[in-house]
């Protein structure tokens, strides 16, 4: 199980408590390698990436789960995505006069979006009206208020690795809606143990070792890990679609004016460029037949 980039689900036998542990190394470093981010932004990106991978693993689906925050602090936007529980990417925009000692996000809002390949898109918005709130607390509150799931989240990142740890107490069926005394005791005991996890352990030890160190007196069942990799979802097809949505008149006047329509992917720096013949071809009846 010693992958450098993976998420593992686990559960505590005979309790309603389950968890996720995520560790990212290579994929995180690839994201950091695309931009020259200040240290504070790097760590925040790591936390967002770990959270996104971890949350994606709780819902196992084909599609994209993303976390996007817009704030009034020094980091204007930060977005992390996990596709099909595997491919991760992230990007941040921050003020030019960024100062590592200053406030990172400030007040703002966090959007949690689940965009399945098939089926309906879901988006939950959480207002961050207290600039002391950490991403951990924002997500914990979200699960409690929107999903009625007791949740604890721990996120760690340095400039090389990012790690996430999560515990959830799954609700009982409607007939036994309140948690029993035993469940509360299990929850408190397991949280107490999890709270002893140190950042250096979360970042340096394998997931298996961490779970063993924390919970060797519990009966923990591990599920097969999902490996993660950096991968951008930009493509020739998506760029073409972006131009098609401009409409023929606007696309043609743009390409006539600029000679080329250039689309730069902010996530991976891939460049897509189209000259006038290519743009005309996109809108020709023939091209549309091929698409249909
Ligand atoms: Zn890209």
UniProtKB/TrEMBL annotation:
Sample GO molecular function, one term: protein folding chaperone
Coiled coil region boundaries: none
GO terms (BP aspect): protein refolding
Domain of life: Bacteria
Keyword annotations of the record: Chaperone, Cytoplasm, Disulfide bond, Redox-active center, Zinc
Alphabetized InterPro entries for the sequence: Heat_shock_Hsp33, Heat_shock_Hsp33_C, Heat_shock_Hsp33_N, Hsp33_helix_hairpin_bin_dom_sf
Record-level GO cellular component terms: cytoplasm
Keyword hit for Glycoprotein: no
Protein's name according to its UniProt entry: Hsp33 family molecular chaperone HslO
């Amino acid at each position: 199980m010693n992958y450098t980039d993976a998420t593992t689900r686990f559960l505590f036998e005979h309790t309603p408590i389950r968890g996720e542990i995520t560790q990212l190394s290579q994929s995180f470093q690839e994201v950091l390698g695309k931009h020259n981010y200040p240290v504070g932004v790097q760590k925040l990106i790591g936390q967002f990436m770990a959270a996104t991978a971890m949350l994606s693993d709780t819902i196992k689906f084909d599609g994209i789960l993303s976390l996007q925050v817009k704030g009034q602090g020094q980091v204007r936007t930060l977005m992390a995505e996990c596709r099909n529980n595997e491919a991760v990417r992230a990007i941040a925009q921050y003020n030019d006069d960024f100062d590592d000692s200053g406030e990172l996000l400030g007040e703002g809002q966090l959007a949690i979006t689940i965009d399945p390949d098939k089926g309906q898109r879901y988006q939950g918005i959480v207002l961050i009206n207290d600039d002391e709130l950490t991403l951990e607390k924002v997500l914990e509150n979200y699960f409690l208020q929107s999903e009625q799931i007791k949740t604890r989240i721990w996120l760690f990142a340095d400039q090389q690795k990012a790690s996430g740890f999560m515990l959830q107490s799954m609700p009982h069926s409607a007939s036994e809606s309140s948690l029993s005394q035993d469940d509360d005791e299990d929850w408190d005991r397991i949280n107490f143990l999890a709270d002893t996890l140190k950042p250096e352990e979360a970042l340096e030890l394998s997931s298996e070792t961490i779970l063993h160190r924390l919970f060797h007196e519990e009966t923990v069942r591990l599920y097969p890990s999902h490996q993660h990799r950096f991968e951008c979802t930009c493509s020739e097809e998506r760029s073409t679609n972006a131009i098609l949505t401009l409409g023929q008149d606007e696309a043609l006047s743009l390409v006539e004016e600029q000679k080329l329509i250039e689309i730069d992917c902010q996530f991976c720096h891939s460049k897509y460029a189209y000259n006038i013949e290519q743009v005309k071809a996109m809108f020709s009846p023939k091209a549309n037949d091929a698409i249909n």
